[in-house]
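Section 5: illustrative case.
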């Protein structure tokens, strides 16, 4: 069986993601941001004060990855971590004023990348492309959750 990259959904999505990331990085680097911290900022801009566990769940990443990301964000003055008032084992993540001030220019940069990347598609094609990606993501997340539940039942 031959593997043909331009017929592989996984390969194409990965390649597309790298292109998006490169374009986004070029635009947010002058703001002092990276593509590594951007997803966490997007979630925190929707509402900060989340626990690390909540961020992990929303970002769908591993705990060590988030721990490293938060350490960099704290070092760069974007977040502060405070002990949870109810559960002393948990820490809540709070945006700094510096991070809040970066929201509008960072989101504008991301929107520009999206706009330029999808410029060759009609509005209907853009809507369909986004809908299909959301459906694939939902299916893959469900499959991953089912696998975890199966392991817990048999383990």
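Designed sequence:
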């Amino acid at each position: 069986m031959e593997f043909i990259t331009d017929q592989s959904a996984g390969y194409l999505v990965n390649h597309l993601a790298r292109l998006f990331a490169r374009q986004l990085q070029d635009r947010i680097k002058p703001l002092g941001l990276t593509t590594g911290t951007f997803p966490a900022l997007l979630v925190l801009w929707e509402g900060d004060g989340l626990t690390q566990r909540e961020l992990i769940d929303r970002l769908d990443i591993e705990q060590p990855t988030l721990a490293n990301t938060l350490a960099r964000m704290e070092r760069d003055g974007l977040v502060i971590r405070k002990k949870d008032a109810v559960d002393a084992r948990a820490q809540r993540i709070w945006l700094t004023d510096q991070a809040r001030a970066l929201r509008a220019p960072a989101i504008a940069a991301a929107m520009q990348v999206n706009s330029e990347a999808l410029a060759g598609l009609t509005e209907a094609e853009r809507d369909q492309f986004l809908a299909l990606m959301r459906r694939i993501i939902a299916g893959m997340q469900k499959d991953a959750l089912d696998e975890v539940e199966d392991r817990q039942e048999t383990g």
